[in-house]
Request: fold
Amino acid sequence: MSYISLYRKYRPKKFSDVVGQEVVIKILKNSIVNNKIGHAYIFSGPRGTGKTSVAKIFSKAVNCLSNDSGDLCGKCEICNMNLEDEIDIIEIDAASNNGVDEIREIRNNVKLLPSHLKYKVYIIDEVHMLSTSAFNALLKTLEEPPQNIIFILATTEFNKIPATVVSRCQKFDFKKLTKKQIFDRLNYILENEKRNLNSDVVDLIAQISDGGLRDAINLLDQVLSLEKKEISKDDVYSLIGDLSEDRIFDLLKYIVNSDIKSVLSFIDDVYNNGKNLVNICERLQIIIRNIIIYNNTNGYFDETYEKKLQEFSKININNILELSNELFNLINNLRKTNNQKVIMEIYCLKMSLIFDNKEKNIITEENENDKKIITSKDDKKEAEDNINDEIKKIRINNSLAGANKQLKSEFVNKYKEINEYVSNKEYNSIANLLLKAVPEIVSDKNIIFSFKNNFDVILFDKNEELIQKLLEKIYNKKYLVVALTSDDCEKIKKEYINNIKKGIKYEYIEEKASKKKKKSKDKLEETAEDIFGDEIIKVD
Reply:
């Protein structure tokens, strides 16, 4: 007998076999028990979460000759039939049958009664891929469904299904499975297959599958095919063409230590071995996100992972945010370019230079199990921060000096126009940030915004010039802006009221542009030229 892949071998045969999706299963079983069968269902959710499997089980269950529990009895001829041989249960792949002619053929066939089952069931997989005209043809059938006909529409992209179709169906959301649910199922399969794997390898497979059980079982199948006595986590990473987590941490270490030679050597190695550069950058971005979470929470990650994050916990938050921004740009450019290696090198150099002369992150080994990053700032960095604080104080003062309720009212009334820039390529991130802000104090030239958390204030400060540019486009005038947390803003308001009561007046202070912090690209240009020659390479 030919080999049967594990995901087919362990595909659920009845509702009780389905992993997760308890709410969906309960409702479907109750509808069968109470004889309240709908004519059309939408099964929506990520891939590998059981949509098609549940659709096939449901198509049998509604026709089962003894389904008092709502599940398959497992004994009657309906439960034991091969779906591929049953003419009353029709499975259609909309990815390859997405035209109006195929749907018209369905419309003609639904008029015919089931041959020998109680219900004729149409399972349309990836239904979102139907054309507009095909959806219109299907809509007519859904509006006036014949008796004993059931449609099950499965999709991974619910947003692409027309509202007119959705309104005529019962919708069920299939959730991603938890890591534990997948882990337990994989161990169940290993036990039945009489195979052994290290627990950390099974755990990694469950993690990589990202909530999709089918992907997890397929990867397990590949791992078992290695036929090695001891399968390691690195074997799993090799199978999926990825790097181990430790290697991603190594790249971050090289960057924060401005170790340019190691950065270039790393890129050369992964590129020559055919690794996915976009995936590497996305995983690096997740680590940066996790560093920020680690610095602001307790016990969010497991102890082993937190030890890895701790090495980078003292990096200046502004540098972390700048690194994240560069990674975002790098990922976008990698997807558009034909020369990924050069783009990767340029951006990683750029990221390395974020930490050069600004902040030295020296990783020292006190012993084999104790590593930490020592962070120091130079005098120039402190001076720049002080200048920025001075400008902030001036803008707060000037906003209060010219504060005007009428000006604020006019500003707020037009503020909703920011929504028009949410999908704009240049301003989308800035627009989303401003939509979280509250315009607190408005004068003719200055505005104070407030945010609930300090993280958004930091992002605001980093993008101050672009924010002012967007506001100028909307209001046709230039504002100088400043952002504070809600708590700080309340303190300033109280101080302002007290000063006014005491007769203290706020006078406008001229802001000197020369004191603003300026970024220099000289170091980057010099380094790029040293490595790549004097050819001009543009970096967005």
